[in-house]
Write a structure and sequence with these properties.
The complex is a heterodimer of chains A (about 220) and B (about 110).
Chain A (H helix, E strand, L loop, with lengths): L2 E7 L6 H8 L5 E6 L6 H7 L3 E4 L6 H14 L4 E4 L11 H9 L5 E5 L10 H19 L11 E4 H6 L9 H11 L4 E5 L11 H16 L2
Parallel strand pairs in A: 1-2, 1-4, 2-3, 5-7
Antiparallel strand pairs in A: 4-6, 5-6
Chain B lengths: L1 H22 L5 H19 L1 H10 L6 H40 L2
The chains are: A alpha/beta (about 220), B mainly alpha (about 110).
């Protein structure tokens, strides 16, 4: 069973080397999609031993994930893990993420920051942004997940083949969750730890996600 | 009356410009038609401003005809901006697909 990690990276020269080094013992292949970084992310990722491709222009994290997922499928991945380049996810969580896919009880596994493991989530996110996103998911889309915005996910090959990521920007995260359920995939959540180095997406980012999702629906 | 004359002169200026652009091949026949219809409607609306006032009053609006025309123009502008936003989003999507194809060299 070939396990491939896809890492979208933009200006991550400070972290990419250590992220790849930590991942190596858990997966068979690491694909880094350099989203047209201005620093030497591309070179450092290559030196660290990853398969690296580069977008000729910056298109956003969603677009980089789409490219990376397609490349992973082309290279025969059986399980595809989406992992961030900013060193906030923990590679040690990967065995737990893989287990439901290996034993056939799930088609897609989403990491959750709100189950048994502890994450140092900023208070604003923990008590305001995430509950709001959770409420929107439950009330509008009938999706009951403890973590409505997790970027750490593992997909079976079949699930990844069905998944067509259309949002180039940060709305891809919500889009992926909705499409997994829409595609009829068996989705489970697994506890993960996320170590925050910075706040990440702001509250205004939520409105941008909503706007991007509406526009994406309209241009179909 | 003076305002109407100024408005008509402005519209005539844009109509002349439109025909020049068509003659020089700067716009497509479709674009020419759309703009011609737009300026002709504007011209008719300015000439028949009094009749529009009466029509608007008959329809039960409290404003004058010119007010209603301005409101309609604002609505039209909002719609055009919305259409442009959608067109840009479509172009962005195409650029991303092209970018991916080039990256994966398919």
């Amino acid at each position: 069973m070939k396990i491939t990690t896809v890492i979208p990276a933009y200006n991550e020269a400070d972290n990419i080397g250590s992220v790849i080094a930590k991942l190596k013992s858990y997966v068979d292949e690491i694909i880094v999609v350099d989203d047209s970084s201005h620093d030497n992310t591309y070179e450092l990722a290559r030196l660290a031993g990853a398969v690296v491709v580069r977008h000729i222009i910056n298109r956003g994290q969603g677009a980089a994930l789409r490219t990376g997922t397609q490349l992973a499928l082309d290279r025969g991945a059986d399980i595809i893990i989406h992992f961030d380049a900013d060193d906030q996810f923990q590679a040690e969580d990967i065995p737990d993420m893989l287990e439901p896919l290996r034993n056939g009880s799930a088609d897609a596994v989403l990491g959750s920051r709100f189950l048994t493991k502890k994450s140092n989530l900023p208070k604003m996110k923990q008590y305001f942004i995430m509950p709001l996103a959770r409420f929107i998911n439950r009330s509008l889309f009938n999706i009951k997940l403890s973590d409505p915005q997790s970027g750490f996910r593992a997909l079976s090959r079949a699930s990844a083949q069905k998944l067509k990521i259309e949002n180039d920007g940060m709305a891809h995260c919500t889009e992926i969750i909705h499409k997994l359920f829409k595609n009829g995939d068996r989705v489970v959540e697994v506890p993960i730890t996320v170590i925050y180095h910075e706040f990440g997406q702001k509250f205004s980012g939520g409105f941008k996600i909503l706007k991007d999702m509406i526009i994406q629906k309209l241009i179909k | 009356m003076l305002q109407q004359i100024i408005a008509i002169l402005i519209i005539v200026f844009f109509l002349i410009r439109l025909f020049k652009q068509k003659r020089n091949g700067q716009i497509t026949p479709n674009e020419f038609s759309i703009w011609l219809i737009f300026w002709l409607i504007a011209l008719i609306a300015i000439i028949l401003l009094k009749q529009i006032d009466i029509l608007v009053a008959d329809l039960g609006f409290s404003g004058t005809g010119i007010n209603i025309l301005v409101y309609l123009a604002v609505l039209a502008l909002i719609y055009l901006v919305f259409r442009m936003r959608l067109n840009i989003a479509k172009m962005e999507k195409n650029i991303s697909e092209l970018n991916q194809a080039l990256t994966l060299k398919k």
